[in-house]
Write a structure and sequence with these properties.
Elements (H helix, E strand, L loop, with lengths): L12 E2 L6 E2 H25 L2 H5 L4 H27 L1 H6 L2 H23 L9 H26 L4
Antiparallel strand pairs: 1-2
């Protein structure tokens, strides 16, 4: 095995079987992944039948759920766009970049913990819902790791 294929640089790369993967590329891919998550999140109100489930609630409570959901969606859009259009700056490791990446890592880290806590079994009724749930879990891990690494990696 060629040892040059397993290079690790604390500054901007992680281990890869084919060589170096630049942190800028990882952040760009992570930015795009946010929009995949949004596709999945758009299915939630239908899969969980929010219209029926929220009908016993007062109008204000129903509106608040939609508002909270809207804020989460806008945050995910912002994470994706900032990452896609500013990946090089985020990977450069300035103070603001580290702060942003740290926040995104915490955001997805908390979501990952919720993945383990929420009882979703009764809603994963088809193979594609189970596959989607598993895929989301992998994405939450990946996003937490990529942004965590960008926030905490050693300066060079």
């Amino acid at each position: 095995m060629n040892t040059s294929c397993l290079m690790l640089s604390a500054a901007s790369s992680v281990v890869s079987w084919h060589g170096r993967i630049d942190l800028t590329e990882l952040i760009t891919a992570a930015g795009a992944a946010h929009f995949g998550i949004l596709v999945a999140s758009a299915l939630v109100p239908f899969q969980l039948d929010w219209k029926k489930e929220f009908s016993p609630l007062s109008r204000l409570h129903r509106q608040m759920y939609w508002i909270y959901g809207g804020y989460v969606v806008l945050s995910i859009i912002a994470f994706g766009l900032i990452s896609l259009f500013n990946a090089a700056e985020l990977s450069a490791g300035g103070g603001l970049a580290r702060g942003f990446c740290g926040y995104v890592a915490v955001f997805w880290g908390v979501r990952l913990v919720l993945q383990a806590v929420l009882d979703v079994k009764e809603h994963l009724t088809t193979w594609w819902l189970r596959l989607g749930y598993g895929t989301l879990t992998v994405l939450f891990v990946a996003l937490t790791l990529v942004y965590g690494w960008a926030a905490l990696r050693p300066r060079m």
